[in-house]
Amino acid sequence: MTATIPTGPLANLRDLGGIAVEGGAVRGRTLFRADDAALIDDPGARALVADGVELIIDLRSPEEVAYTGRGVLAGYPPVHLPLPLTREAAGPTVLALMDRLASAAQPERAMGGWYAEQLRARAGAVVRGIKAIADTPGAVLFHCAAGKDRTGVFAAAVLSVLGADRSDIVADYIRTEDNLGPLLARVAAARPGAGTDADLLTRLPPVLLRAPRGAMEAMLALLDADGGVVEVLTRAGLTGGTVRRLQEKLVS
């Protein structure tokens, strides 16, 4: 059964339009990233439809989807594509990650290491998401819970495939820092077993409450050892045809 959680405007919704990539820039109002779209209200859902959003890529774990469902967007036209980048929202794996980040001598590098592991482990799912973006005529929105970690990894993957400079990928990631205040209450309410806002703040390692530059820089640097983000995705099935269709759709 899904939980009843208050809806409202998304706290970390933004258009990737204008980011410089190979051959130009990302076309406006074609690709959006966000926090948990299941928490959007009716006016927000109508606005997404008016913006031409036809596909919503859901990067949350099955546990999170079961807990909050799809929200009001279930009654609107956009297709829902579940592509979980993590298996759970709470449990032994998450607790182990929290311990790892809390005890790390270099927390930002440790978080970047976690991001790199996510991309390696779920490269096939990321490729499916990129193909879905390329094959959807209208706009696409992708999201997780906060729109920071899993969404940041997916955004970095898409921008890498489009040929964005590393500095621009990092700049997009750290923009979430401006939205972290409003995000905390929403994540606390929508995360199974998270408890209150105060409880969330005391339980999470401080680095997880930020979108630090060093985390994304570390992810990209660590993946260089595998040939880079695009090479990791290519080995997972990304084709030249998909890249061309993605460029044709998103780049102007």
Automatic annotation (TrEMBL):
Keywords: Hydrolase. The keyword DNA damage does not apply. GO terms for molecular function: protein tyrosine phosphatase activity. PROSITE patterns: TYR_PHOSPHATASE_1 (PS00383), TYR_PHOSPHATASE_2 (PS50056). Pfam families: Y_phosphatase3 (PF13350). Its EC number is 3.1.3.48. InterPro entries: Prot-tyrosine_phosphatase-like (IPR029021), Tyr/Ser_Pase_IphP-type (IPR026893), Tyr_Pase_AS (IPR016130), Tyr_Pase_dom (IPR000387). Residues 124-159 form the Tyrosine specific protein phosphatases domain. This is Tyrosine-protein phosphatase. It comes from Pseudonocardia autotrophica (Amycolata autotrophica).
